Amino acid sequence: MFLNINKMKKLVGVLLLVVGYSAFAQVNPEKAIKQFSNKMQAVKSISATFSFTLENLQEHITDTYQGKILAKDKMFYLDLMGMEVFSDGKTKWQYIKDANEVTVSNINKKENDFLDDPTKLFKDYNKNFKYKYKGIVKVRNKEYYEVDFFPRDLNLPYSSVKLQFNSKTLEPYMIRYQGKDGNNYIIKIKNFKSNVPIRNDRFIFDLKKHKGVDVIDMR
Q1: Which fold would CATH assign to domain 2-217?
Q2: Are the beta carbons of 182 and 59 closer than 8 angstroms?
Q3: What is the pLDDT of residue 9?
Q4: How confident is the model at residue 123, as a pLDDT?
Q5: CA 95 to chain CA mean position, Å
Q6: For position 8, what pLDDT does the model report?
Q7: Which of the residues 132, 137, 183, 186 has an alpha carbon 20 to 30 A from that of 198?
Q8: Which pLDDT score is estimated for 3?
């Protein structure tokens, strides 16, 4: 379960302007992608719920889970698949609810771990990815720009990331990670809210609220 999340290089955070085009010929892909990236980087905080699907076509596996993410500056909180992840930008706490166990580690900026920065896709995309604009897709009468990103670092556990974001609000809708191990990870974002007030202590694991918790300190 935990390994699956680590391989995602995902979110959402996330997860985190208005472009009123409606046909491929009218879209300036470079401009749209840049506007999306600028908006996500300008957002001061994010609150969103999402569905997370683990897909393995060879093994005929499709499992979907519901999750929640909060993000502010370099801090984030993620609740998914029975695990809560807290990060204040320097320290990361991974709490497994059923086991009442928390693993504490330092953020390693060199490891490119999604769980160290779920908003990485939205930052410095030119530096970290090559990309190809695919066109506009319609979902429930809404239009989304679709872009495929290809990591410049070939050692990452995924080969591509498909992103769909709203053509009018520029808010992210779907992120699909194509894993090299046959596992794909699909995130569909719901109830996306930006610039909401979030206390900094929301991103720190509170030992006092988890009596008897088993602490594994990896620092």
Answers
A1: outer membrane lipoprotein receptor (LolB), chain A (2.50.20)
A2: yes
A3: 37
A4: 60
A5: 18
A6: 38
A7: 186
A8: 39
Q: Considering the entire predicted model, what is its pTM?
A: 0.77
What pLDDT, on the 0 to 100 scale, is given for residue 15? 33
- Go through the chain and tell me how many residues it has: 219
Q: What is the 3-state secondary structure (H, E, C) of the chain?
A: CHHHHHHHCCCCCCCCCCCCCCCHHHCCHHHHHHHHHHHHHHCCEEEEEEEEEEEECCCCEEEEEEEEEEEECCEEEEEECCEEEEECCCEEEEEECCCCEEEEEECCCCCCCHHHCCCHHHCCHHHHEEEEEEEEEEECCEEEEEEEEEECCCCCCEEEEEEEEECCCCCEEEEEEEECCCCEEEEEEEEEEECCCCCHHHHCCCHHHCCCCEEEECC
Q: How many CB atoms lie within 10 A of CB 113?
A: 18
Low-confidence ranges of the chain (pLDDT < 50): 1-25
Residue that has been written with the tokens 């046959």 in this structure = 182
Q: Would you state the structure tokens that stand for residue 80, as one six-digit string? A: 């998914």
146 CB-near residues (< 8 Å, 6+ apart)? 133, 134, 135, 136, 137, 162, 163, 164
